[in-house]
Amino acid sequence: NPVCGSDGISYGNECKLRLESCQHMRNISLLHDGLCGGCENKKCEYFSVCESDQLGEAHCVCPRDCPQEDNPVCGTDNITYKNDCELQKTACEKKLPLQIAYDGDCVLADLCKGIKCKHGARCEAGVCICPTNCPSLPEEPVCASNMKTYANECEMQKQACLSDPPASLSVVFYGDCNDRLGPGMTTTPLTPGVIPQPSPKATETPREACSDIRCDFDATCELGV
């Protein structure tokens, strides 16, 4: 007789649910009889956890009630949090890739004041660090100023920062470069630029490419974009 627990996990019966709750000191209650609605296969990020509602639907939920204990930790954003739960709650609510830099107050937080990091790097304890991991987000491709398409802006900044020498990349527009510029004017991301066969659009001069383009909001046309 399978049952669904309030943690969104299916148990063989109510006894096994209570055993799990007791052994791991978790407050798990019986949500409904039968299997849960999908938490077993749902992936939650930013420290959120999967919970099933009364209809058995799975949802990723941020930490709600953090303990009041004063056990400060310093986050990778150089902000001191009351405890690790408060850091996780902030990371989840703001969808930030926060981690604990070290236990205790951020005594080195002031070292980042006045420091401007380039090429997508961020300041940690007075040092500019390249991003090494981008959060697993739905793909939002960007066309960069090197005419390459990246899965998202974070991946673009990561490659710009880690390249040797570091590159200065910016977003030209959101979307695949080929959608607007044509295959003859783009290169494959993360591979050395290969001189492509120019498309008809690529043979146009900048003035010809922009002849029919009217830009709003004080924007200017470059290469037909």
Explain what this protein looks like in three dimensions.
The structure is a single chain. The strands form 5 sheets. This protein has a 3-stranded antiparallel beta sheet. The protein has a 3-stranded antiparallel beta sheet with strand order 7-6-8. The chain starts with a strand and ends in a 16-residue tail after the last helix. The longest helix has 11 residues. The protein contains 5 helices and 13 strands. Helix content is 18%, strand content 18%. The chain is of the alpha+beta class and 225 residues long. Among the domains are: 31 residues, no CATH class; 61 residues, Wheat Germ Agglutinin (Isolectin 2), domain 1 (2-Layer Sandwich); 58 residues, Wheat Germ Agglutinin (Isolectin 2), domain 1.
- Shape summary: flat
Helix and strand succession?
EEHEEEEEHEEEEEHEHH
Q: What is the overall number of helices?
A: 5
Look at the structure and give the mean pLDDT.
Answer: 77
Rg over C-alpha atoms, rounded to the nearest angstrom: 25 Å
Separation, N- and C-terminal Cα atoms: 61 Å
Q: What's the arrangement of strands in the largest beta sheet?
A: 2-1-3
| CATH classification, class level of the domain at 49-109 | Alpha Beta
The largest sheet is: 3 strands, antiparallel
Write the layout of secondary structure elements.
Elements: E1 3-5, E2 10-11, H1 14-23, E3 30-33, E4 49-52, E5 58-61, E6 73-75, E7 80-81, H2 84-94, E8 100-103, E9 122-124, E10 127-129, E11 142-144, E12 149-150, H3 153-162, E13 171-174, H4 177-181, H5 206-209
Antiparallel strand pairs: 1-2, 1-3, 4-5, 6-7, 6-8, 9-10, 11-12, 11-13
